[in-house]
Amino acid sequence: MAHRTLNKRKPWYKLLWQNILKYPQLYLMALPVLLWYIVFQYGPMYGLIIAFQRYVPSKPILKNQFVGMKNFMDFLADPYFIRVLRNTLVINFYLLIFAFPAAIIFALLLNELRGARLKKLTQTVTYMPHFISAMVICGLAVDFFKADGMLTSILVSALGVEKTNLLSIKDYFRPIYVAMQIWQETGWDSIIFVAALSGIDPTLYEAAVMDGAGRFKRVWHITLPSIMPTIIILLILRIGNMMTLGWEKIVLLYNQMTYETADVISTYVYRRGLIQFDYSFSAAVGFFNSIVNFLLLITANTLSRKVNETSLW
Amino acid sequence: MRKKNKNHIDTNTTAGRVFDVFNNLLMVALIFVTLYPLYYVVMCSVSDPKLLLAHEGPLAWWLGEFTLEGYELALNNPNILVGFGNTMFNLIVGTVLNMTFSILAAFVLTRKYFYLRNVMMKMMIFTMFFSGGLIPLFFVVKHVGVYNTRWANTIPYLISTYNVIIMRSFFVSLPDSLEEAALIDGASDTQILMHIVLPLSKPVLAVIGLYYAVGHWNSWFPSMVFIRNTKLYTLQYVLRGILITNSMSVASGDNVLSVQEISFASELVKYCTIIVSTVPIMCVYPFLTKYFEKGVMIGAVKG
């Protein structure tokens, strides 16, 4: 900053040029990185132009016919609009109320363990599923939930569900998906909470004991408030990623019988765009998705700043 | 790191002890629930496929005679071998490229005298919040000539901004004194990077490198979207045909098998490929957790 105020009168491009001449190696290092970001991150943003066109890949991008907001209007009028929006929101809502607290509760329980060895072992083992590929996880789900699969047969005898391929029944898709997500990510998601827990000042607990606070009371009045900023930040991150999170697994697991409950905006973009070749339409849907995502993140952040004085930026 | 068990002062009440027992048992149960699916698959993979097809429900041990036939079939399957070759190429070449680009990005962002530092940082952070989406990316990949080549597996996702930020915050935390001494001696930026920053950053480099490597090992999405040529599919995408769509024949070409034999073979191969493609991950993942356990991510994102 000091550098800039000192040279206030010179325009930025002169300053940049001077800087390049002075540190050419630095710019040689930055160049490939900048190029990659421009081509593969900002290139697609420029490519969003096709969302306002009737795009034909054989023509250069700007030579295509512009149709204004037509693709967006088509999406809003699309019979599947409500379905994909509802599924995106409902699946994410389930993840927020089941998977998100699961990681916090798991971290709190780990923190209450007396034996350091059991704690370490539990942590190491429960981190593992996070690293298994989505393909293998979905392969396991397909095998376990087929008509004579391992989990199907358990569920048949325990809950009396119908003995059939559970992944082809629309009412089961979301519970199965959320359960998979909890199995795979709870351990890993707890890492940050465990780290936050280890940073709590031990004298707080000692003081609480003096005041006669029992174990549960200490968790409620000391532990939870101490990790609240971490919880808020992760909640923001989670909400910000909500429109894209985990859709690859949905692509692998859903089928025509479960589209009704499983098809989310991202999977719809993929199917309409790359399987049915409705490029402009699906680019518009994707654009809609990115904007909603961005707005969600900003709203969540503003809210948390107001309520909690904790925010991402 | 703080000592554990801070909230265990005065827990020798009956309720406290009951809770401890319950909590320990719960953790053991969670370990079981996490490991059992993989144990089950291991048991299936060495079972007699005839008995396996007739069996329903959990297994405690393998069925019938112990057999490694499935592994033999899996490891001789041409599609799996080609997929493995492609994955290894991505893993080695891709990780080197990932690391080169990430190190360069993280390093230039630590240079206070770099005029574009703030602009570049903002430009990178913005991509974490907004992206052009899949369809425009698809056309970018096509236009730059990467589509349907083996580079389509690595180039479109070359840099993870998250990893760059973690690496950068590690570089920033290095002591300034060595670098200042080097600057006084007239060291260039390249020299500072190669002789001071990188040697001091081995732990974070190892972790991020492993992280990228695991990403390549598990990668299938680019194969699905950017590649048509089946000879360029990654191992995980080859698995899709075996595990999920059941569209790939698992028997190798030379011996003629009956329909029943094929269904036995595919049952076994399915479980064996799960194990073969997961074991390497299980060997390296404990090394990956180190930096994340310290809450680096939060600090990095906030800072």
Describe the protein's architecture and organization:
The complex is a heterodimer of chains A (313) and B (303). Chain A has 2 domains: 20-67, no CATH class; 72-308, MetI-like (MetI-like fold, Orthogonal Bundle), CATH 1.10.3720. Helix content of chain A is 75%, strand content 1%. Chain A has helices at 2-6, 12-22, 24-47, 70-77, 79-112, 116-131, 134-144, 150-159, 170-198, 202-210, 215-240, 247-253, 259-262, 265-275, 279-308, and strands at residues 53-54, 65-66. The radius of gyration of chain A is 25 Å and the shape is globular. The two termini of chain A are 19 Å apart. The mean pLDDT of chain A is 87. In chain B, helix 4 packs antiparallel against helix 10 and helix 12 (235-244) packs across helix 13. Chain B has 303 residues and is an all-alpha fold. Helices cover 68% and strands 0% of the residues of chain B. The radius of gyration of chain B is 25 Å and the shape is globular. The chains are: A mainly alpha (313), B mainly alpha (303). Chains A and B meet through helix 2, helix 3, helix 5, helix 6 and helix 7 of A and helix 1, helix 4, helix 5, helix 6 and helix 9 of B.
Q: Major sheet of chain A: size, sense and barrel closure?
A: 2 strands, antiparallel
Largest sheet of chain B: none
CATH topology (level 3) name of the largest domain in chain A: MetI-like fold
Instruction: Give the CA-based shape of chain B.
Output: globular
Low-confidence stretches of chain A: none
Order of helices and strands of chain A: HHHEEHHHHHHHHHHHH
Total number of β-strand segments of chain A? 2
Order of helices and strands of chain B: HHHHHHHHHHHHHHH
Under the CATH scheme, which class of the largest domain in chain A? Mainly Alpha
CATH superfamily of the largest domain in chain A, please?
A: MetI-like
Q: Please name the CATH topology of the largest domain in chain B.
A: MetI-like fold
Catalogue the unreliable spans of chain B.
Answer: 1-5, 295-303
Helix content of chain B: 55-70%
Q: Give me the secondary-structure category of chain B.
A: mainly alpha
User: Gap between N and C termini of chain A, in Å?
Assistant: 19 Å
The number of helical runs of chain A is 15
* Domain unit count of chain B: 2
Biggest sheet: strand arrangement of chain A: 1-2
**Roughly what is the average pLDDT of chain A, rounded to an integer?**
87
